[in-house]
């Protein structure tokens, strides 16, 4: 079986070719697109391993070429690249890549991808054949693992496709964000933009006049609301009002009651804003916390149907695994934070929001704005401890972890106890606000 290896770098070509030979396959190094086109006239390979970027050509030129040719499009292609952007992985998948390897990669990773692409269960590298005494049971187990990996790859690409099917945020959200960044904009610019959408206007006025904002007089126009509440709060309100349809879905598989995800999202957003203010984050960081609090579990909307499909395995994984994220990763290959992060990247939202959503269960890994991510993690945990809009399984930080987290925000370790009454009032107000929308 011949495997074409297309890479402009000689060392890379030799490295990949050696591994291919060790599997008993025949590597054929190819250094340019022209050479590939000519060689394909003479021979059809079993597999192509191609560099994403060939100098002088568009990205994924080989993949593009293969997928455009009717008689070639069934040849599996594995992409190698030194870039690790999610968009690249998505684009490669869309174009039909069967595998994706980020350089430098090790032998094991390449062999795994080749197995998946060729759907070969027992391809064994030469010189590492199993000892003759190996039992049939072990081999069966190996095959099972291999089949699981194939299924997992299939699932992963189905999930990534599902992300693409979620509609982008309404154009008005981006326009409002643009206006906020425009120093010359004023309240009537916002009014002009928002009143074009009657449902949004009505929803926003209801939100502004709810007891949550406790304004001294009734607000009748969006421009008044902008003056009263400030640009950043308006941005959060527009986002909240325009995502309600998306979130008002039933997601029983994650333990939410009817509209529970919408309630949970709003509660976490409000608690995040409250914690962020208390920790003296800047006004724009405070509003970022509100937005990422609102969107933190959006990945569950995408993973929900897949989790349902594997409900039995999911339940048993939760009982044996430490966390929901681990169970999701084990069964589906992604956790809901990662999927939410990919969606937000597609929506072109800023990096700090992407990070807070991606890492809300792993705040210690944040690097862009660790404080914002920590706030979301705390708000999520606090919301579950308050007993409103519960999610399943509830991930709780133990007292020591919580105290450490508040300390990192320069807040007293017993901050929650000190603010118990205010937090409970806030949660009740949010539940009321949500009910009126
Ligand atoms: Fe979560
Ligand atoms: Fe959550």
Molecular structure report:
The protein is mainly α and 437 residues long. It has 2 domains: 2-165, Response regulator (Rossmann fold); 248-435, Orthogonal Bundle (Hypothetical protein af1432). Helix content is 61%, strand content 5%. It has a 5-stranded parallel beta sheet, sandwiched between helices. Helix 1 (10-22) links the parallel strand 1 (2-6) and strand 2. Helix 7 (171-181) packs antiparallel against helix 8 and helix 12 (260-278) runs antiparallel to helix 22. The chain is elongated, with a radius of gyration of 26 Å. The model is unreliable at 124-147 (pLDDT under 50). One fe (ii) ion binds next to helix 12. One fe (ii) ion (FE2) is lined by residues 264, 268, 296-297, 380, 391.
Q: What's this entry about, in short?
A:
By secondary structure, the chain is mostly helical.
Keywords summarizing the entry:
about 425 residues, mainly alpha, Rossmann fold, Hypothetical protein af1432, 2 domains, 5-stranded parallel sheet, 5 strands
Strand order of the largest sheet: 2-1-3-4-5
Number of strands: 5
- Give the end-to-end Cα distance, rounded to a whole number of Å: 63 Å
Radius of gyration computed on alpha carbons? 26 Å
Given as residue ranges, the uncertain stretches (5+ residues, pLDDT < 50) are: 124-147
Biggest pleated sheet? 5 strands, parallel
């Amino acid at each position: 079986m011949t495997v074409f290896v297309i890479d402009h770098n000689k060392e890379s070509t030799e490295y990949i070719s050696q591994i291919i030979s060790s599997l008993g396959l025949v590597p054929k190094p190819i250094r340019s697109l022209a050479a590939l086109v000519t060689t394909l006239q003479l021979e059809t390979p079993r597999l192509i391993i191609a560099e994403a970027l060939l100098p002088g050509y568009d990205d994924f030129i080989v993949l593009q070429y293969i997928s455009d040719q009717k008689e070639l499009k069934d040849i599996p292609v594995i992409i190698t690249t030194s870039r690790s952007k999610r968009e690249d992985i998505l684009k490669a998948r869309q174009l039909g890549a069967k595998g994706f390897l980020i350089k430098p990669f090790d032998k094991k990773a390449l062999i795994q991808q080749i197995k998946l692409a060729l759907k070969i269960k027992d391809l064994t590298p030469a010189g590492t054949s199993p000892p003759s005494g190996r039992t049939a049971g072990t081999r069966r187990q190996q095959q099972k693992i291999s089949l699981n990996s194939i299924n997992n790859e299939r699932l992963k690409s189905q999930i990534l496709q599902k992300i693409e099917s979620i509609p982008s945020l309404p154009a008005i959200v981006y326009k409002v964000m643009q206006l906020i960044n425009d120093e010359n904009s004023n309240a009537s610019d916002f009014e002009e933009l928002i009143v074009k959408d009657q449902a949004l206007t009505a929803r926003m006025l209801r939100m502004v006049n709810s007891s949550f904002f406790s304004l001294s007089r009734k607000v009748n126009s969006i421009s008044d609301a902008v003056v009263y509440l400030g640009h950043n709060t308006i941005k959060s309100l527009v986002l909240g009002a325009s995502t309600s349809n998306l979130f008002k879905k039933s997601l029983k598989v994650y333990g939410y009651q009817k509209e529970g995800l919408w309630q949970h999202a709003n509660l976490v957003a409000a608690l995040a804003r409250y914690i962020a203010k208390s920790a003296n984050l800047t006004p724009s960081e405070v509003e970022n916390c509100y937005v990422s609090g609102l969107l933190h579990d959006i990945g569950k909307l995408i993973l929900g149907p897949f989790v349902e499909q594997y409900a039995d395995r999911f339940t048993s994984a939760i009982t044996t695994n430490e966390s929901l994220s681990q169970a999701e990763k084990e069964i589906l290959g992604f956790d809901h934070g990662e999927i939410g992060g990919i969606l937000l990247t597609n929506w072109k939202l800023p990096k700090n929001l992407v990070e807070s959503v991606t890492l809300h269960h792993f705040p210690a890994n944040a690097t862009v704005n660790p404080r914002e991510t920590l706030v979301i993690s705390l708000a999520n945990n606090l919301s579950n401890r308050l007993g409103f809009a519960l999610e399943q399984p509830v991930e709780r930080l133990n007292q020591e972890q919580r105290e450490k987290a508040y300390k990192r925000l320069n807040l007293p370790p017993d901050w929650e106890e000190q603010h118990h009454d205010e937090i409970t009032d806030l949660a009740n107000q949010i539940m009321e606000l949500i009910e009126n929308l």
